[in-house]
Specification:
The complex is a heterodimer. Chain A is an all-alpha fold. Chain A has 11 helices and no strands. In chain B, strand 4 and strand 5 form a beta hairpin. Classes of the chains: A mainly alpha, B alpha/beta.
Chain lengths: 277, 292
């Protein structure tokens, strides 16, 4: 643990990533305490103070119905992160199980599962998510479902590749020879050896899930008003460019910071976990 | 001779390929008595390791493998057992040691976790404490100093010789009746290999374990085995007690194999004639020729 930290801290980019992610997560969790106007997350109207450029106390300005943009961005982070975590919490177990089974058992299991994965991968991700959202009602839950549908195949493929190479290792043969069951070998022997690559990808992906979710709501297929969402905030503000620039610039920056932060952190983790091997 | 622990009769193995069936073993017969140490010697690709895998019941699960012949282990016909039953034999009544001990241990778990899994095969209710104690005494058997510390370590933190001892201790942990050693310690350097082999020999003699020792190293075989089978291209070409076979090799292939051992006294590396016709001569069985 100390070693991990010292490697992390020795690279300035990792430190920046850690700081950005820390800020995003912190502001999402403690939005209630940080946000100057917590009630503005919902349907609040304040026409005396609408569409104002950044000024005190609305440091990011106000939106078209007079809500504080800074507060809304903090709450939007909360929703984005929640969505990212839930999507990964569902997609990773499914994908990894599929990949492990296909990679270790081989034969027709491999064929069926990996071709199914290929089918999912062959559809452009945003189109797949859009069609799921189009058929279902655009709610937060369905948004998670849509993104999960397009996300698990990547984990299946990742786990499959690692499993294929780990299966050749001596300890797998040794486990077979002492009579370990297939389930034991898949989940207790091979899976722990896949963890570094999976964790790295998960960190990188948190950023991308936020990006995809924002894209969906940018297209009007994500979280619906009045719930704050970075994507829909950008879309809304886009109509008033360049005059009311703060409506788009600040939510966009918020997305950028989150995605950038998770990317840097993912890279850092790859270094740390890779060096441990 | 007593009722053998393992007997193979006319074992044939083929693999189905795109170009038809390729036969790899052309009828292997061998027998290992209880407590006996038997070596199977041959060059790379002669069929030593596949024989071991058939005995362990690992190739039976491969779709492309075609196996015929009789395999009796401790009186039971292995071919008649189900996949599950074969699986339950492995690690309890037969076990195996490999070439490269370090890669045979899972890099992400400390040794004691892996030991516990092996011991649990015999006793489902084994507690962590009991497992630790058993492991410590088993590691002491293979002369590991500070077994407590070794148990907490990961495989990559230990030397090759240490890992080999750990593997030997694990393989013998459940007191199997048959131990298959597939070129044990070939990945180690010679002195360490010699040390661990002596250790293994003493241990199996004490516990009365039967051993099938697979090797291409004639010096090691001579040290270790009671009887030797020489295998060439999927056939047993010569069989006999170790001393007889080494002092009076009769089959042309055995002679060539022994001549091929580089000597420390120099004289260059002898040339083994490739694919000599004489190597395919019928099998010579010393036990038949030299009545006891």
């Amino acid at each position: 643990m100390r070693r991990t930290l010292s490697i992390l801290l020795s690279n300035p980019l990792s430190v920046i990533g850690l700081l950005l992610v820390g800020t995003v997560v912190f502001s999402a969790i403690f939005a209630d305490f940080i946000a100057p106007f917590p009630s503005h997350r919902g349907a609040v109207v304040d026409f005396s103070n609408f569409n104002q450029p950044p000024h005190w106390p609305n440091i990011f300005g106000t939106d078209l119905v007079g809500r504080d943009l800074f507060s809304r961005i903090l709450y939007a982070y909360r929703i984005s992160l929640m969505l990212g975590v839930v999507v990964l919490a569902i997609a990773v177990p499914i994908g990894v199980t599929v990949g492990l089974a296909a990679g270790y058992l081989g034969g027709w299991v491999d064929f069926v599962l990996m071709r199914l994965t290929d089918v999912f991968l062959s559809i452009p991700p945003l189109v797949l998510a859009m069609s799921v959202m189009g058929v279902l009602e655009p709610t937060l839950t369905n948004g998670m479902l849509a993104v999960t549908t397009m996300w698990w195949p990547w984990y299946a493929r990742l786990a499959y590749n690692v499993t294929r190479s780990e299966s050749q290792e001596g300890y797998v043969l040794a486990a077979e020879i002492i009579g370990a069951s297939r389930l034991h070998i898949m989940f207790r022997e091979i899976l722990p050896n896949c963890v570094p690559s999976i964790v790295t990808k998960m960190t990188l992906d948190l950023g991308f899930v936020i990006l995809i979710a924002s894209s969906l709501s940018f297209l009007g297929l994500g979280v619906q008003a009045p719930t704050p969402d970075l994507g829909s905030m950008v879309a809304e503000g886009g109509n008033y460019l360049p005059d009311s620039w703060w409506l788009t610039v600040f939510p966009s920056l918020a997305i950028l910071i989150a995605v950038f932060g998770f990317n840097l952190l993912g890279d850092a983790l790859r270094q740390v976990l890779g060096a441990d091997q | 001779m007593s009722d053998p622990i393992l007997s193979l009769r006319d074992l044939k193995l083929g693999f189905k390929t795109y170009e038809g069936l390729v036969e790899v073993l052309h009828g292997i017969s061998l027998r290992i008595g209880r407590g006996e140490k038997v070596a199977l010697v041959g060059e790379s690709g002669s069929g030593k390791s596949v024989t071991a895998r058939i005995i362990l019941g690992l190739l039976q699960e491969l779709k492309s493998a075609r196996i015929s012949g009789e395999i009796h282990f401790d009186g039971a016909d292995l071919e008649k057992l189900s996949r599950r039953e074969r699986q339950s034999l492995r690690g309890t009544r037969m076990s195996m040691i490999f070439q490269d001990p370090t890669s045979s241990l899972n890099p992400v778990f400390p040794i004691h976790v892996q030991f516990h899994e092996v011991l649990r095969r015999m006793d489902r209710n084994l507690t962590q404490r009991q497992g630790m104690q058993r492991a410590i005494s088993l590691l002491t058997d293979v002369s590991i100093p500070e077994p407590e510390r070794v148990l907490q370590a990961y495989a990559f933190q230990l030397s090759g010789g240490m890992n080999q001892r750990v593997m030997i201790a694990m393989a013998l942990a459940n007191e199997p009746s048959l131990l298959i050693a597939d070129e044990p310690g070939t990945a180690l350097d010679v002195t360490v290999q010699a040390q661990t082999l002596h250790l293994m020999r003493d241990l199996v003699v004490r516990k009365g374990t039967s051993v099938l020792f697979i090797s291409h190293n004639l010096g090691v075989v001579r040290e270790f085995a009671d009887r030797v089978y020489v295998i060439y291209k999927g056939r047993i070409v010569e069989h006999g007690p170790t001393d007889t076979l080494f002092s009076k090799p009769l089959h042309p292939y055995t002679k060539a194999l022994m001549a091929a051992v580089p000597r420390i006294t120099g004289g260059g590396i002898p040339d083994i004639a490739e694919n000599s016709e004489a190597f395919l001569d019928p099998m010579i069985d010393h036990e038949v020729e030299v009545p006891a």
